Every structure is written in structure tokens, then in C-alpha cells.
Amino acid sequence: MDRVKSDGDNDTANPMDWEEWLAAYGGRFLLFARQQARCEADARDLVQEAVVEAWQRQGDGRPPPPALVFSRIRLRAMDQARAADRRAARESAAAGGNPEPWFDGSIEERERQQLIEDAVRGLPSIYREVITLKVWGELTFEEIATVLGIPANTAASRYRYGLAELRKRMKEVVT
Amino acid sequence: MNDLAQDPLEQELRRLRPAQPPTELMDRLRATCPLRGAAAGPEPPRGVASRDWMKVLLRVLAPVSAVAVLVAAGMVLHGRKPAAPPGAEGLSPVIADDVTVASELVSSFDAVAELPGGEPVRVRCRQWVDHVVVRIGGKEVTIEQRKPRMEVVPVRFETY
User: Fold this and answer.
1) Which chain B residues are closer than 8 Å to A47 by Cβ?
2) Distance CA A80, CA A101 (A)
3) Rounded to whole angstroms, how far apart are CA atoms A55 and B31?
4) Which of A15, A27, A140 sits opposite B19 (nearest CB)?
5) B18 pairs with which residues across the strands?
6) What is the distance between the alpha carbons of residues A27 and A136, in angstroms, rounded to a whole number?
């Protein structure tokens, strides 16, 4: 996966920066938001709100660092969850799961991809969010630690345990 | 901290591409980001923008309103002119040669009341009718106020 340079240069914002940035990171943000939100509509709202907030914090018109957007998604999701507790009926309607596929893939890969996706969905959230931010968000453990508000060593160990758990779950399904 | 070396599972995970956001979400994101080259920043959702605008307006208007009220109060207290009676606009003021005010006592009575602290207080109530005679250049203008004017005077109880 190509990583788009989003910070560090002094160029002023131009339309292509944002188009490329959105094309490169939109899916990753939505993947993380889908794991944090209760339903697809909430996940999309999370992405939009987080992008706007992160851009406003950035303040110079350039695309914000992805870690900042992930961080805003998580904080917004926590607010959303608190609000969702007050609307139990809607929550129960969304509890049936998120039918949207998390990953794109070719037809040949579809079966294997579904296996991995199911395994990732079944992971405890503390492992799933670290794996998502590390593998598909392409954040460093330091950045993950900042996003999640945990020590970097904890982020690294959760990633290691999460991979082990994922491997175990996939073996159980295959065998 | 060095990131972990990739194992086969990790490589396989990395080969998976997150699903692209639906067109509807991308359109929303484009609408909120400065894709049209606006370095000033994204246009937030309409509701958010109007709330921010209202906040700024309130922040400006609140102190301005307070100052305006204070200035208006000062003008009323210190610089107020007596309002002209209806129909008197444009008339020059009249200077009277003599003014006689006679007051007629209509009634007088005393009453006892209690202050909020329970202390009794005596008040003396008097009703007056005023007769005002104005003389201007040999002409007399009599103004009589027939509506009784109530005068209430607290009178201290004598203590021994």
C-alpha cells in the first residue's frame, strides 16, 4: 500500500493533495470507524466529523496527519457510544452487525479474505484496534499509543498478542 | 521502538485493502475539505457552520449590548430633558411672573405597620389637594389638582 506524504513539506494546500489524501486514507479511516461505531451510518458520520476536526486542528489548510484523524474517530466514537446508550432502541436495531465488507478484493481471494475478515471481527477490541491502526492505518507504535492513550510498549504487546489470537482463530476455522 | 518484523500472516493482512468509502461518503468528505483549492480550510457541515457563526455573533454582541445599555442608562440619568407634552413641540417656554401654590389638607390619619424584622413603625398619612395659581403678564392661570395627593411619613415610636 502506498503511503501518501501528508506532512513535512511546506507546500500550500492544493486540490490534488486532498484528493490523493482522501483516496489513500478514506478507506482506512472508514475501516477503523466501522470497528468503533455501532452501525454503518454512524461510522460514516465519524469519518466526516473526524476529518473536519483534524483539519481544523491542523490549521494550515493541508491534510492532517492520519494519526490525528484516527484519534478523533476514536474520541468521537466514545461520545457517540455514550449518546447511543440513551437511545437503546436504535442501538438494538443496529446490533445485528455491520453488513458492509471491510475489505476490497478479487473474486479469487474472496473466500480467504472473508476468513480473515471474520477472524478480525471476532478479535477482542483491544487487539483489533491496534492491528487495524498498525496494518491498515500504517501508524507506528508511538502513534498508536497516542491515538489510544496507552504506552507504546502496551501497543506493541497488544499487537503481538492480537496477531497470535488471529492466527489461532484462523487455524481453528481452517482445520 | 523498532516495529516487529513481518511474519507471513502480517504480510497477508497487509495485502488486504480496506474497502473504499461509498461515493456518498466521499462526496461528503469532498464537500468538507478544501478540494477546490481553498487554503482557508474546509467548509464544515452547514449546521456546524451556523452554530460557529452564532457563537461568534453572540461573543461580539454580548459585550456591545452591555455597553450600550450602560451608555443609555447614563444618558437617561444625567442628560434627560423633560419630555414635551403632546402638541407642545415647537412652542417657546413661558416665564411666569408669580406662582402661588396652596395646599388643602383633606384628611389625616395614623397607621401602624411592621418592618420585615418585626419592628413596629407608625406612619402618618395625609391627603392633600393642591391649588396652583400662575400669573403671566396680568393674566392668571389657575391649575387645580383635585386628585388627592397621599403623603405617608414614618413616625418613630417614642421610647423611654
Assistant:
1) 21, 25, 29
2) 22
3) 13
4) A27
5) A103
6) 9
Q: Which string of DSSP letters, residue by residue, matches chain B?
A: -PPPPPPHHHHHHHHSEEPPPPHHHHHHHHHHTTTTS-TT-----HHHHHHHHHHHHHHHHHHHHHHHHHHHHHHHHHHPPPPPPTT-TTPPPPPPSEEEEEEEEEEEEEEEEE-TTS-EEEEEEEEEEEEEEEEETTEEEEEEEEEEEEEEEEEPPP--
CB neighbours of B96 closer than 8 A, spacing ≥ 6? B134, B135, B136
Plot region of B56 (φ>0 → left; ψ -120 to 50 → alpha; else → beta): alpha
Cα A72 to Cα A53, A117, B75, distances in angstroms: 7, 24, 52
- How far is it, in rounded angstroms, from Cα B121 to Cα A39? 74
- B103 interface with A at CB cutoff 8 Å: no
Q: Give the closest of B18, B33, B45 to A28, CB-based.
A: B18
B54 pLDDT tier (thresholds 50, 70, 90): low
Q: Which of residues 112-151 of B touch A (CB under 8 A)?
A: none
Q: How far is B48 from chain A (nearest CA, A)?
A: 10
Q: What is the ipTM of this complex?
A: 0.74
Which residue shows C-alpha cell 393642591?
B130
What is Dmax (Cα atoms) for chain B?
121
Cell, residue A86: 440513551
Whole-prediction pTM value?
0.54
Predicted confidence (pLDDT) per residue in B78-114, tens digit: 655 555 556 656 666 667 777 777 777 878 888 887 7
CB contacts < 8 Å between A and B, how many? 123
